[in-house]
């Protein structure tokens, strides 16, 4: 099977500091791939390179076998179907979940024109479907600022999903969440992966164990190893650099 995303020898140099030192990674269509590894391993930098926030100093990042992402501006990468959710939610707290999704759906217009413009029935239904998917339908008319931390994160995921991405990048999506919210987020990721490939940066090993289809371990700007969670846990190098001897 051809990978949906293929990174070859990707390097990032921050004024002499080599944050990525030749990353080779294939991501298959509709898999839930977890990127793990010690602090500073380069996980976030790799997501930044894929979505165009950071430029690779060399190497290739090929999307859908033909689109060279390392040459494209961020907005064009979004248009190609790659969505990125950052750690901190960037939702409008003084608007409702419904309105937030409305804005995300019509990204390029001004805030006022979006809220004044009439919505088609199809658009309305699309927003409602996303609200149901992320578990916010009941709360769709509350102020987003009054939602729990987990609900705010789900709203932001919904704002990415409404763009109908092919590849969704999530950076530590369960940070700060309660146990119940973590499980719901894992279930949501599994649901999303029916239609979209998902790459998740995560430190919580229980979460990775429960919801990953593939795990990639990064260390010092490179891929150290990859496989199932079981493969990873049995790998001696991974035990040494990350999971510890008891891991
Ligand atoms: N803009 C930057 N300028 C200089 N160095 C940077 C920059 N961004 C990241 N780094 C460095 O690059 C290395 C990789 O950082 P990155 O955030 O990708 O690691 P990470 O694996 O995501 O770590 P964590 O798990 O702590 O989030 C770190 O040493 C970091 O300090």
Automatic annotation (TrEMBL):
**What are the UniProt keywords, alphabetically?**
ATP-binding, Nucleotide-binding, Transport
What GO molecular function annotations does the UniProt record carry, in alphabetical order? ATP binding; ATP hydrolysis activity
> In this protein, which residues make up the domain named ABC transporter?
5-245
The UniProt record lists the keyword Lyase? no
Pfam families per the record?
ABC_tran
Q: Which InterPro entries match?
A: AAA+_ATPase, ABC_AA/LPS_Transport, ABC_transporter-like_ATP-bd, ABC_transptr_urea_ATP-bd_UrtD, P-loop_NTPase
Listed CDD domains: ABC_Mj1267_LivG_branched (cd03219)
Q: NCBIfam families attached here?
A: urea_trans_UrtD (TIGR03411)
Q: What is this protein called in UniProt?
A: Urea ABC transporter ATP-binding protein UrtD
Q: Which organism is it from?
A: Metabacillus litoralis
């Amino acid at each position: 099977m051809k990978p949906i995303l293929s990174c070859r020898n990707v390097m990032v140099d921050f004024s002499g500091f080599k944050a990525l030192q030749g990353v080779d990674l294939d991501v298959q269509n509709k898999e839930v791939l977890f990127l793990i590894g010690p602090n500073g391993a380069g996980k976030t930098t790799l997501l930044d390179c894929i979505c165009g926030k950071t430029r690779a100093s060399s190497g290739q990042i090929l999307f859908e076998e033909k689109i060279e992402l390392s040459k494209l501006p961020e907005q064009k990468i979004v248009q190609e179907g790659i969505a990125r959710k950052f750690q901190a939610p960037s939702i409008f707290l003084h608007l409702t979940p419904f309105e937030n999704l409305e804005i995300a759906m019509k990204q390029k217009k001004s805030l006022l024109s979006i809220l004044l413009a009439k919505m088609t029935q199809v658009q309305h239904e699309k927003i409602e479907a996303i609200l149901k998917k992320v578990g916010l339908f009941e709360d769709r008319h509350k102020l987003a600022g009054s939602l729990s931390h987990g609900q705010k994160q789900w709203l932001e995921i919904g704002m990415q999903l409404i763009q109908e991405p092919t590849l969704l990048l999530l950076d530590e999506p369960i940070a700060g969440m309660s146990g119940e919210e973590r499980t719901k987020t894992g279930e949501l990721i599994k649901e999303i992966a029916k239609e979209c490939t998902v790459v998740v940066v995560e430190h919580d090993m229980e979460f990775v164990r429960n919801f990953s289809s593939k795990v990639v371990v990064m260390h010092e700007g490179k891929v150290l190893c990859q496989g199932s969670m079981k493969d990873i846990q049995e790998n001696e190098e991974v035990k040494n650099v990350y999971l510890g001897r008891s891991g």
